[in-house]
Design brief:
About 30% of the residues lie in helices and about 20% in strands. The protein is built from 13 helices and 17 strands. It folds into 2 domains: about 220 residues, Medium-chain alcohol dehydrogenases, catalytic domain (Quinone Oxidoreductase, Chain A, domain 1, Alpha-Beta Complex); about 160 residues, 3-Layer(aba) Sandwich (Rossmann fold). Helix 5 packs across helix 6. The radius of gyration is 20 Å and the shape is globular. It is an alpha/beta fold. One of its GO terms (molecular function) is zinc ion binding.
């Protein structure tokens, strides 16, 4: 089969590799009809996630048709159309029983590596380094899906791939970001990063009752799309963000701040941006945490900081004093996708949320390298790339 593999920093290639096989009775093989390039894939592409190896198959947002099932898989059959969540979860451990699927205790065969980096291991993830399981990803023609009796969601109506594909990751992630804020009527929410997850966080914040949402980014076409979704745009290259948020909130600061930017946040042509980029390039810190720093300094006293942007290790100059002294609450985590898939599918069916508005490009799998480049460099008004094998 053809698959998108990591070929080194800033390089991916589409190569022919062996087809996946059933390795466990709870496996399924899925023939992929649609897959996507995620913002967190760019952290792999840029070389900032450890334990990625040349030849690793990328991608964790995918869906398709079941073509083979293991003997223990009872609720899926050949021919079923499914969306596959990016965290791999057993469904039976202590974490899964509490719906904390991205913390599954049984799905990461390389837990020992993750423990050295993080203290404890989270779940295994598709296409996201050997530290998180070394599982082949979904930017391919076929994928092996472990614990297929737990994860995949059957799509049994005529909704298009484009409408349901993002149930695999970014729609639940954006929704969880807003849910973690415990939004009350009248609240103001600020979102750093107007990429796909940030846009879904904006939609979700309004669904959950926010009175106003502010989008902080630097790319004009992304801010324009955020504005179409009802957000007040703030371009951090043109405006002092803290001052603008003070103006918008009558001096109190946003009630809730969502970091949907993560480890490669930018701060324009500033000294602190150059500092973080230099330290990251020299591997003296793994993150560029400007968005998170700014969220912490902006949030109102007693407010909430919700972090769904991906971080990989250690950051510098984090304002813990502001967080402690001003009673800020931090909530974070890789999304527990399985918890949200069916409720969000119902919202899509009812027309309460339209995931298709973020899609800018449909490409063939053979064009994956081009997709990564335009997505990374914000070319051709690229907001989201779907690859069709």
């Amino acid at each position: 089969m053809k698959a998108t593999i990591w070929a080194g920093r800033n390089s991916v290639e589409v190569q022919s590799i062996p087809d996946p096989e059933i390795l466990n009775d709870r496996d399924a093989i899925v023939k992929i009809t649609s897959t996507a390039i995620c913002g967190s894939d760019l952290h792999l592409y840029d070389g900032y996630i450890p334990t990625v190896k040349r030849g690793d198959v990328l991608g964790h947002e995918f869906m398709g048709e079941v073509v083979e099932v293991g003997k223990a898989v009872r609720d899926l059959a050949v021919g079923d159309r499914v969306v596959v969540p990016f965290p791999i979860a057993c469904g039976a451990c202590s974490a899964c029983e509490r719906d904390l699927f991205s913390l599954c205790e049984n799905s990461n065969p390389n837990a020992g590596i993750a423990e050295k980096f993080m203290g404890h291991s989270p779940a295994g993830l598709f296409g996201y380094s050997h530290m998180l399981g070394g599982f082949a990803g979904g930017q391919a023609e076929y994928a092996r899906v472990p614990f297929a009796d737990v994860g995949p969601l059957k799509i049994e109506d005529d909704l298009t791939d484009e409408q349901v594909l993002f149930l695999s990751d970014i729609l639940p992630t954006g929704y969880m970001a807003a849910e973690m804020c415990d939004i009350a009527p009248g609240d103001i929410v600020a979102v750093w990063g107007a990429g796909p997850v940030g846009l879904f966080a904006i939609m979700s914040a309004y669904l959950l009752g926010a009175a106003k949402v502010v989008a902080v980014d630097r790319v004009p076409y992304r801010l324009e799309l955020a504005q179409k979704l009802g957000a007040t745009p703030v371009n951090f290259e043109e405006t002092a963000v803290l001052e603008r948020l003070q103006d918008i909130t009558a001096g109190r600061g946003p009630d809730h701040c969502i970091d949907a930017a993560g480890m490669e946040a930018r701060n324009g042509a500033t000294l602190v941006d150059a500092y973080d980029r230099t330290k990251q390039a020299m591997r003296l810190e793994t993150e560029r945490p400007h968005a998170l720093r700014e969220a912490a300094m902006s949030c109102r006293n007693g407010g909430t900081i919700s972090i769904v942007g991906v971080y990989g290790g250690l950051m510098d100059k984090f304002p813990i004093g502001a967080i402690m002294n001003r009673s800020l609450t931090i909530k974070t985590g890789q999304c527990h996708v399985q918890r949200y898939m069916r409720p969000l599918l119902d919202r899509i069916r009812k027309g309460e949320i339209d995931p298709t508005v973020i899609v800018s490009h449909h490409l063939s799998l053979d064009e994956a390298a081009h997709g990564y480049e335009i997505f990374k460099h914000k070319e051709d008004h690229c907001t989201k790339v779907i690859l069709n094998p």
